[in-house]
């Protein structure tokens, strides 16, 4: 059974998303909506991770050792200027997709296992992951034309 | 010379208890006997009282209320009776000015407009029209907003246009869209003549709309007085008359409203048949409010559980109810969500769309409804949906431009973001008209640094020298109310015409003429090569006729109106068309709302994050005319008092002033009544800091500091209040603008800034 492996991947993805939202929140303090919303969405991922932990324990036997650190790849380059915000939001959105996909995979397993607690956790967290991505997409769409066409 | 009362001392005038139609009382204030009277409406609050302007020898010599008008039946408040003298103020702007070598110098209209045009063209060439932004007003006329909207959306094709309405009524519009599909107030002022109860949330009506308040006072003096529930952290004039006054802690509107709804549901004081037939979302809403027991509400908000029950009992058992909300809701945390809870209350009780049952998501300004309707803010004309390709095509057809000329790839840029783009240097030309952001925006130090930026070209169009015109590169002198003709719409959808009574001073021109002139000089053209505005528009009446075409078939249908009809007597409520030639008192009388997918003004938002939903999202939930019930849970404000900044600051208005006092500060009577700012603090806090009435107090937040004389009492401990009207044009030196202290942040859905809370510390200083 590889469920533990995937729960580890999920737990780590939520952690990376949580940290990344926090990073962007602090980095873009001059954009009040970015600062506040990213702080809030970081807290959502922190909560999700807390909810996943018991399942990681429960199915830990076959947890993989070191899941890939996607965040390091995404936020690696130094960014500044008007493009930085758009690129940071872009990378955040990519991280939400990793989480989203992990949850989708976990849900399939949860159904097969008939683990009602895991199903309930999925339902709660998956919906909010979607909302994190929706906010990012809306903000990216708003920033895109100005950043690509106008900003110096 | 006539003065029917001293409205400074007697704000609301004598009481006339009544049933049926509100009796006529004509208020008048003139300094000389007029040669003739000119029909207009008042622009010194959002009520829209019918007013006649008295003219003698080409000067305004006074005003009187219009007895025939459904809004006020002749009454006027202190601002209306005294504010008109500002037109004759000796310091009116009368010539264009251009900044040369760092100094503003007189110029001709040709020089000023050609400079604006050449700058516009240069910026468009180098950076696209996305580097041009407009920040307009809630004070101009609908013809002017519609001209501006066409210039921005069809001429330049910039998404950056918003009004100061973002600071005042954006949440009203957002909340109406969330619940009912489009903007548009469901109720009518006549509801106040019969209603059994009134709920006022964060709305000091007695100071804001004095004439509307007089209507309630007259009901209270009559044989069947309504019960009043007032939610306000301060003991305002309004709260003094309350049957039940709930004074929640700052930032806790949502728990109070959730708690009230929970009590209504628990007691069965809801209309299940109406909910089933005309709404969606009841079960989810019920789940959200269910946690908010009166005891939990009390712990968080400080509102005693018994008082909450008392209020819920009134709101749950009255047969008719009028609810209003204003800045206490709109400028607080979770603004849209809290405003929506008021809509929910009416939907749960089925109290909407019938006499005596109304919701006013109040406007703050006289013409802010038109900024929204005409698309001079972050909306599209006639409540069209930026995400709906058919709506964009309709506008493209009306304006004869390609649909992609009209920016519709994301929501139009909101004001705070426009200022942020100016700050980052991405917007390089900002055209400010009829507003004074250097006093009215939050965190003024940041705004000053932005407007001072060398790479930002600033145009300020105003009637008076202001804190803002001081920083402009070009100043355009504008004609104001009484000096031009146009129409505007109040909060119960009543449209008034305001006729030109006198000539503007010097070379001042109407905003309409200025915008049309810009369009002509920029040579904006439609797809067939004809000039964009000027091919058909000679007068404001032409613009009104064009606006009628734009509204045809939309909720705000003006097609049944004309200048002639509006000049006959009373104002007229939209929709006014073939089916409703005399206008319409109530919207949604059949319980069918504007939420259909091809009709709605927005596809909705995530109420917590503000993420806009798409056409595809909406397809799955299209309620086909049912209203949305939506709710959210409580969120703690982003800044809370701590050891360093132990007190809450809140800001608000005074009865004698409007906005940044550009007009009311130039009326001797109004200015003498409230000549200076102050800080109001609780008796307990005053004692702790050793402060007595009149002491000079330094108030400091993380963003700035002000010095204000103290006024002690009538406020909750831990909270201090500073009126937002005062700036520096008439009293430079002492820092006194409340917005030196406020926070740059906004509601995720309506994007309205949060003026109602900031953490501050105070100390007594030796004056």
What do you see in this structure?
By secondary structure, chain A is mostly helical. Chain A is built from 5 helices and no strands. In chain A, helix 1 runs antiparallel to helix 4 (82-113). Chain B is of the alpha/beta class and 767 residues long. Chain B has 4 domains: 2-88, Single Sheet (N-terminal domain of TfIIb); 97-168 and 367-573, Rossmann fold, CATH 3.40.50; 170-362 and 594-621, Dimethylsulfoxide Reductase, domain 2, CATH 3.40.228; 647-765, Barwin-like endoglucanases (Beta Barrel). Chain B is built from 27 helices and 28 strands. Chain B starts with a strand and ends with a strand. The interface between A and B is medium-sized, with 24 and 30 residues.
Secondary-structure map:
The complex is a heterodimer of chains A (152) and B (767).
Chain A: H1 3-27, H2 32-58, H3 70-74, H4 82-113, H5 116-150
Chain B: E1 2-3, E2 28-30, E3 36-41, E4 50-56, E5 59-65, H1 78-82, E6 97-100, E7 103-106, H2 109-127, E8 132-136, H3 142-156, E9 161-163, H4 165-168, H5 170-180, H6 191-194, E10 197-201, H7 205-208, H8 210-220, E11 227-231, H9 237-240, E12 244-246, H10 253-266, H11 272-278, E13 279-280, H12 282-289, H13 294-301, H14 305-317, E14 321-325, H15 327-330, H16 335-349, E15 358-361, H17 368-374, H18 389-399, H19 415-424, E16 429-433, H20 437-440, H21 444-451, E17 457-462, E18 474-477, E19 486-489, E20 494-498, H22 511-522, H23 540-551, H24 563-566, E21 572-573, H25 615-621, E22 627-628, E23 647-652, H26 668-673, E24 679-681, H27 683-689, E25 696-700, E26 705-712, E27 719-723, E28 758-765
Parallel strand pairs in B: 8-9, 8-16, 10-11, 10-14, 11-12, 13-22, 14-15, 16-17, 17-18, 23-27, 24-26
Antiparallel strand pairs in B: 1-2, 2-5, 3-4, 4-5, 6-7, 6-18, 19-20, 20-21, 23-28, 24-27, 25-26, 25-28
Protein name (chain A): Molybdopterin oxidoreductase
Organism (chain A): Hymenobacter ginsengisoli
Protein name (chain B): Nitrate reductase
């Amino acid at each position: 059974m590889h469920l533990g492996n995937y729960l580890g991947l999920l737990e780590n993805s939520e952690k990376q998303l949580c940290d990344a939202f926090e990073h962007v929140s602090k980095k873009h303090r001059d954009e009040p909506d970015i600062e506040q919303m990213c702080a809030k969405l970081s807290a959502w991922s922190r909560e999700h991770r807390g909810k996943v932990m018991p399942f990681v324990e429960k199915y830990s036997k076959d947890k993989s050792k070191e899941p890939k650190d996607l965040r390091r790849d995404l936020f690696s380059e130094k960014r500044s200027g008007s493009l930085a915000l758009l690129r940071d939001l872009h990378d955040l959105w990519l991280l939400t997709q990793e989480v989203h996909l992990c949850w989708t995979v976990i849900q399939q397993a949860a159904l097969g296992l008939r683990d009602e607690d895991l199903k309930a956790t999925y339902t709660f967290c998956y919906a909010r992951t979607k909302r994190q991505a929706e906010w990012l997409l809306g903000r990216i769409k708003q920033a895109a034309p100005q950043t690509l066409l106008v900003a110096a | 010379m006539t003065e029917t009362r001293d409205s400074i001392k007697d704000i609301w005038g004598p009481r006339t208890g009544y049933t049926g139609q509100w009796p006529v009382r004509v208020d008048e204030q003139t300094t000389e006997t007029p040669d003739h009277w000119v029909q207009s409406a008042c622009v010194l609050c959002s009520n829209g009282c019918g007013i006649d302007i008295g003219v003698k020898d080409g000067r305004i010599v006074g005003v009187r209320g219009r007895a025939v008008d459904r809004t006020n039946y002749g009454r006027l408040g202190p601002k209306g009776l005294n504010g008109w003298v500002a037109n004759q103020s000796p310091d009116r702007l009368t010539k264009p000015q251009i900044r040369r070598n760092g100094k503003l110098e007189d110029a001709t209209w040709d020089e000023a407009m050609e400079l604006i045009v050449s700058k516009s063209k240069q910026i468009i060439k180098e950076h696209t029209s996305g580097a041009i932004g407009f920040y307009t007003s809630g004070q101009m006329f609908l013809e002017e907003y519609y001209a501006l909207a066409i210039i921005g959306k069809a001429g330049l094709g910039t998404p950056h246009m918003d009004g100061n309405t973002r600071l005042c009524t954006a949440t009203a519009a957002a909340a109406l869209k969330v619940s009912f599909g489009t903007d548009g107030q469901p109720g009518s002022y006549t509801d106040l003549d019969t209603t059994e109860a009134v709920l006022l949330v964060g709305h000091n009506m007695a100071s804001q709309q004095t004439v509307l308040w007089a209507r309630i006072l007259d009901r209270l003096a009559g044989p069947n007085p309504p019960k009043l529930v007032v939610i306000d952290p301060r003991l305002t004039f309004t709260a003094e008359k309350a049957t039940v006054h709930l004074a929640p802690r700052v930032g806790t509107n949502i728990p109070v409203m959730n708690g009230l709804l929970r009590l209504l549901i628990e007691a069965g004081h809801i209309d299940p048949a109406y909910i089933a037939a005309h709404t969606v979302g009841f079960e989810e809403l019920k789940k959200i409010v269910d946690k908010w027991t009166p005891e939990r509400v009390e712990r968080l908000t400080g509102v005693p559980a018994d008082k909450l029950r008392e209020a819920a009992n009134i709101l749950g058992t009255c047969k008719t109810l009028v609810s209003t909300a204003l800045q206490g809701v709109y400028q607080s945390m979770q603004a849209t969500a809290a405003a929506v809870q008021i809509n929910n209350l009416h939907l749960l009780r089925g109290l909407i769309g019938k006499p005596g049952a109304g919701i006013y998501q109040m406007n703050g300004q006289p013409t802010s409804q038109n900024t929204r309707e005409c698309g001079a803010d972050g909306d599209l004309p006639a409540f069209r949906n930026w995400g709906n390709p058919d709506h964009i095509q309709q506008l493209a057809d009306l304006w004869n431009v390609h649909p992609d000329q009209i920016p519709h790839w994301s929501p139009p840029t909101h004001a705070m973001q426009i200022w942020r783009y100016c700050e980052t240097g991405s917007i390089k030309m900002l055209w400010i008209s009829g507003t004074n952001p250097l006093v009215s925006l939050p965190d003024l130090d940041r705004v000053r640094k932005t407007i001072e930026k060398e790479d930002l070209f600033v145009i300020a169009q105003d009637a008076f020298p202001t804190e803002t015109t001081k920083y402009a590169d070009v100043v355009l002198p504008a004609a104001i109310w009484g000096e031009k003709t146009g129409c505007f719409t109040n909060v119960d959808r009543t449209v008034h015409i305001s006729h030109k009574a006198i000539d503007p001073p010097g070379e001042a021109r109407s905003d309409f003429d200025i915008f049309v002139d810009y369009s002509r000089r920029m040579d904006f053209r439609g797809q067939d090569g004809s000039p964009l505005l000027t091919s058909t528009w000679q007068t404001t009446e032409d613009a009104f006729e064009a606006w009628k075409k734009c509204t045809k078939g939309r909720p705000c249908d003006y097609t049944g109106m004309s200048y002639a009809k509006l000049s006959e007597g009373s104002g007229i409520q939209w929709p006014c068309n073939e089916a409703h030639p005399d206008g319409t008192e109530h919207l949604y009388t059949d319980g069918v709302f504007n939420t259909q997918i091809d009709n709605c003004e927005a596809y909705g938002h995530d109420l917590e994050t503000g993420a806009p939903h798409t056409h595809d999202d909406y397809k799955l939930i299209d309620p086909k005319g049912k209203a949305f019930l939506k709710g959210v849970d409580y969120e703690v404000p982003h800044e809370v008092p701590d050891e360093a900044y132990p007190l809450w600051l809140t800001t608000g208005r005074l009865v004698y002033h409007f906005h940044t006092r550009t007009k009311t500060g130039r009326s001797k009577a109004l200015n003498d009544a409230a000549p200076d700012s102050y800080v109001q603090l609780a008796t307990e806090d005053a004692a702790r800091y050793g402060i007595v009435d009149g002491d000079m107090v330094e108030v400091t937040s993380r963003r700035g500091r002000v010095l204000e004389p103290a006024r002690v009492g009538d406020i909750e401990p831990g909270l201090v209040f500073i009126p937002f009207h005062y700036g520096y044009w008439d009293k430079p030196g002492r820092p006194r603008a409340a917005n030196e202290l406020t926070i740059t942040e906004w509601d995720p859905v309506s994007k309205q800034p949060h003026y109602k809370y900031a953490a501050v510390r105070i100390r007594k200083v030796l004056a």
